[in-house]
Amino acid sequence: MATLPPSTMVFSGASLSTSPGAPTSLCATPAAAVSQMHLYRDHFTSNGSNMLMAATMPPIVSIADRCLDAFYHYFFSGHPFVLPKDILLSLAKDRALDISHLLAAMRYMGSLYIDAGPARAMFLDKAIQLAYLPTCPQDGFLVQTLLMLVVGLDGSCEQERARQLLADVERIAIEIGLHRRDFAAANGRGNPIIEESWRRTWWDLFVVDGMVAGVHRATNFLLYDIRSEVALPCEESQYVAGNIPTPAYIEDLEDQVFIGDDREFSSFAYRVAAARILGRMMRCPPIVFPNDENLEKIESHLSNWRMHLPLSKRDCLDKHCQLDEMMFQAHFITHACTILLHQPHSQLDSSPTRSVTSCAPHSHVPSGDAFNAHTRHTITAACEISKMVTQAVPLLSHTHFFTCVITLSSIVHLSKWALYYIQDEEDLRQLIRLNIGALNRLSEVWKAANTASGQVKGVAQEIYRAKKAQQINPAFWVGFTQDEMINSLNTDEGIMSDFESILPVAAQ
C-alpha cells in the first residue's frame, strides 16, 4: 500500500493499481458468479429456457455496493455525519458535484467489515488519490472523506498516517469555515438534512480529534482551542427520518441549569459535552499533587456531567431498547477521563503493565501502602468500562476507539491484580477475561484491537505465573482460612487454560 503523501503531493494514476489481480471496475462481477451464470446459460439455452432463468436468478450485487451497504450497516452509527444513503446517492447523480472521493472512502470503511479482497486497498488508494488532487474542491465533502480515513487508518494501526490526515482535515475545516454558524445554511442547498450533516461533520471531527488525543496522547486536541459557533446535532432518528428540529447550541446545554431550561438534548450533544471535558483536562497545567485544585475542578465537571443527565441518557439504550451509540461513546469518554485524571495519583503500581503500549506509551505510577480516593475513582471507572462490554449489542457496532478505552480499563485491572493479595480476585479475573474477549471480537475488524489483545493477554499470563510462584512460599497463605485456600487453588486450575482459549497469541 502506498505511503500517505503530504498535503501538497499530487498522486499519479498508477497508485490505483495497488495489488496484482485488483478489480479494474468497482462493479466487477465475482468470478464464481460469472462461472455459475455460464453453467446456467448453457443448460437452459439447450432447453430453450434462458429467459426463465434470467427472470428467476437473484441480482448480482457488486463489491462496491456491498461495501457501501456495510458502511451504513456497521460504521455509520458510530460516526453519523455523512448524509443518509438515499440523499447521498441522489447527490452523487449531480454532474456538477463530484463526491467520488467520499464514496470511495465510504466503501473502504465498509470493506473493513466484509471480505472485500483486493478491493479494500483499491478503495483506500482511490479515496486518497482523489482527495489530494489539486482540482479537488476544498469543501465539507472533502472533510468528511478525510475524517473517515482518519478513523479507518487509526483503527488499522497506521497511527502516523492517521495523524497526518488529521492535521490536513483540521486545516481544511478551519479554512472553509466549517466551525462557523453560517456554514451549514450557506452550503446546505436549502435542505435542512444537508445542513444537519455539516453540523454533524464539524462536531464529529471535534470528538475524533479529542479521542485521538486522549487515547494516544501524541496530539494536543487542536480543535478544542477553536471557537465553535456550530449548532449541536439532533438525535440520529430525527436525522435519518429527515425531521430536523430547531437546533440548540453548546451554550444552551452548559447553561441549562441557570436559565431554567429543562429540555432534553440529543445524545450527540452529550457526547460533545463529554469531549469538551476531555479538552479541559488536557489544557490543565501539569497536576503534580493529588490535592491539586485543577484536578478537583475537572472532577467537578465530570460529576456534573453525570448528575445532570436526563434519566433516558443514563445508560446506552434508547427508548426502544436499541443501542444509543452516541451515549455509549459519551459514557466511555467520561470514564476514560476519570482514569486519566486519577490514575497518576492512585496507589496502583503500573509497572506490571509496562508492555501494554498499543494505544499509548506506558505511564509509570508508583505503588502505595493504601487505597486512596484516587485509586477508588480509577478502579470504579475501569469496572464501568468493562460493564459496557456486556451491553446486549454487537461489539462491532461501536467505534474502534472503544478498543483503546478497553485497553485503558485492562491496565487498571491488571495493575490491581498484580498486588500481593486482594479479596475480590475472582471478580477481577472475570473483568480481565471480559476485556480480553471484547478485544478478541473487535480484532476481527480492527488490527489495533488485535495488537492490544495480545499485549493484555501477555501481561495477564505473566501476573498469573508470578502469583502461582508466590504460592510455593508458605508465607503466602498467612491470613487465609482453609476454605479460602481451597477456593483459590480450585479457581487457579482453569485460569490459564481460560486465557489460552480466549485469545490466540497475536500474530502481528
UniProtKB/TrEMBL annotation:
<dbReference type="InterPro" id="IPR007219">
    <property type="entry name" value="XnlR_reg_dom"/>
</dbReference>
<feature type="domain" description="Xylanolytic transcriptional activator regulatory">
    <location>
        <begin position="142"/>
        <end position="306"/>
    </location>
</feature>
<keyword id="KW-0539">Nucleus</keyword>
<dbReference type="Pfam" id="PF04082">
    <property type="entry name" value="Fungal_trans"/>
</dbReference>
<protein>
    <recommendedName>
        <fullName>Xylanolytic transcriptional activator regulatory domain-containing protein</fullName>
    </recommendedName>
</protein>
